[in-house]
Known about the structure:
alpha/beta, ABC transporter transmembrane region fold, Rossmann fold, 2 domains, 6-stranded mixed sheet, 4-stranded antiparallel sheet, 25 helices, disordered N terminus, disordered C terminus
Amino acid sequence: xxxxxxxxxxxxxxxxxxxxxxxxxxxxxxxxxxxxxxxxxxxxxxxxxxxxxxxxxxxxxxxxxxxxxxxxxxxxxxxxxxxxxxxxxxxxxxxxxxxxxxxxxxxxxxxxxxxxxxxxxxxxxxxxxxxxxxxxxxxxxxxxxxxxxxxxxxxxxxxxxxxxxxxxxxxxxxxxxxxxxxxxxxxxxxxxxxxxxxxxxxxxxxxxxxxxxxxxxxxxxxxxxxxxxxxxxxxxxxxxxxxxxxxxxxxxxxxxxxxxxxxxxxxxxxxxxxxxxxxxxxxxxxxxxxxxxxxxxxxxxxxxxxxxxxxxxxxxxxxxxxxxxxxxxxxxxxxxxxxxxxxxxxxxxxxxxxxxxxxxxxxxxxxxxxxxxxxxxxxxxxxxxxxxxxxxxxxxxxxxxxxxxxxxxxxxxxxxxxxxxxxxxxxxxxxxxxxxxxxxxxxxxxxxxxxxxxxxxxxxxxxxxxxxxxxxxxxxxxxxxxxxxxxxxxxxxxxxxxxxxxxxxxxxxxxxxxxxxxxxxxxxxxxxxxxxxxxxxxxxxxxxxxxxxxxxxxxxxxxxxxxxxxxxxxxxxxxxxxxxxxxxxxxxxxxxxxxxxxxxxxxxxxxxxxxxxxxxxxxxxxxxxxxxxxxxxxxxxxxxxxxxxxxxxxxxxxxxxxxx
Length: 660
């Protein structure tokens, strides 16, 4: 005997595991309205779905009543005349029961179909909405949020929200209908037996609550341990993490740490299984005792001639359908709140306002726009509370203190076709300056113009088409070379891909791979060296063919041979284009049309290489420091950065690129 059925038992155990943690949550009316907004497109499906649930509950009550009729025909109640055609009547009722079984099976299929339509549709809507929204959040959001926590919102919480319109909704409606109908029918059959059969109900519900609290505790610990194991695996199974473990010869330590956590998860699993089984056994025992009470008391009434034998059978069958809904509905608040909390956590992400939004009246940049202008630009990074969530950072409260400006009144112009280099110590604001051009962030005050148009007034697509960026750590997706290249221009032909690879000085290497353009680059492109990844990234840039190129330390971490190949590729990339360059070495800064020296968020010097050397100051100090080891800055050799004899401890990550 299985009160409530397999589905009811599963739903009951799930709600018990959620426990007090969600039962105490408060969800506002605004959340409920937004949930209804997501449900509105599926109102027809939800109506049909609820109708199948109600019909299923009605047929569940009808079957025991038909069983009562069968028994009463076979053994008529006291005072009732025997049916002269009892055999035919029994067969007819049996056919009714069979028809109900067939109809019930068809209804269950319809219920599952509409449940899947609603559930999967909601999952699709929520996931695509959240994914699209997250793509529009500022870069700083991704530097603060835990990736695993963010992915969990797209998976676990979306699934929890989906259950609100499938298992939770059907469970609540079905259990209420089943409970009302079953209790009503039982009272009409025998109110005395019905009341006495419910005496054991507290023995059924109270242990469920106690076991539920304990299950909630151990399940919470299990979730936390599983999250830690997932985070560990994500870090250690990545190429960088695996390499670090091997370099420090710590596989045994990592395995031991993982085994301890996995062992605790195993122990929790055993404990959870035993608690679940104990509760299930107790539930079956109480229900069986209640059914025994019905058979005993009902049988005594039947022997005394007060009720028929069929009534006793019907009461026993109906009792099974009474205990399950009562217990499930005792946990209904937990089920509902659990689903609402999942929605609330999804809405937290959707309520994070994108820092960069396209204006309704945004205009396209002029064709081949190539002039860049900064007008008294001031910029500070947004606070954590403006761009992130405490729950995604695993902190109690987010920092709300405004940071100091990174840029303070920066003004300069890059004319079409010019190469401008940004030079300065770490933290001077060089990378921030380049990110304002591509509108990764908006200026706090002042204006950044491209082609004479404020970037805040330009359409995002025209800005992306105009500007191309190559960073020091060129990222490649775990896809083929062709797919990575076509990320810049999806409609590009294979011939165009090969032309871009040729211009980037990497065609020969790609042709020598067994799969050519179909070669999978591996996670983050780790199947290729740093110089090879950079050249593939440059090929992607060339395929995009922007009129403005930003190089953010594109050769900072390459060896001499790789750097030479990359610089040759960059020569092609920069030809005829406006270039804003941030690089690590100063060997070719003298080739720039203009050098801007940043310090403390301000431009402290500007001019050509010769002008700045003659002027002295920070640029001359940086230049002398970098070439102190060679003693010959004119040789063009690259040297490591050392401490400056003029400004001790000053680190240099300044700008330059070789032009051939």
